[in-house]
Amino acid sequence: PHTVPLPPDPVMQGRIDADFRSIDLAVGGPGHAFAFCRKHKVEKCQGCNLDFTALNQISKILVTNPNLRCPPPPNVVQQKLSQAVTNTKDEGNKLYKLKNCKGALAKYNLAANIAAQRPPWESSAVLREELSTVISNRSTTLFELGDYLGALADAETVITVRRDWPKGHFRKAKALLGLGRLQEAQEAISLGLQFEPNN
Hints:
CATH architecture of the largest domain: Alpha Horseshoe
Distance between the termini: 68 Å
Strand order of the largest sheet: 1-2
CATH topology of the largest domain: Serine Threonine Protein Phosphatase 5, Tetratricopeptide repeat
CATH superfamily of the largest domain: Tetratricopeptide repeat domain
Number of domains: 2
Largest sheet: 2 strands, antiparallel
């Protein structure tokens, strides 16, 4: 026996209709699975106020993983990816301890790139944890290489991703000291200590 679907909730349908706008898009790429602005043939078009980046990211994951019929629940974490991030970061830590900062920097860059490959449906907490640790280590490595501006940029990224982690504020203060910006360094330390006063 066939069941007749219930009509949509009129209030919900009204909200959907109010938000709906027709978009003139083109499809292309492998399997014609990627969306682009039809007029300018780009993924992110400022002129037409269109951004298909997130949609194409999901599409790429689904195209390159044909056995993945639908995204798994967000509490499922790719252990192989986490292990790859950890192993690469640990290799960087070993090189850093051996005073091979350029080698460590390469490993931290690789670990950050691996972490950034995490699918968008996984818990963002995992990505925040992995990225903040790797970028924090990269910040201190850049500091040791004399790239204080790069160290500051990474420290700012760590704070953006994980504001309540004192280590990010410490890295920022250290980079600011390297740049000779003592007052700002003191402010960064003070802010970090608010999250962990006994540190």
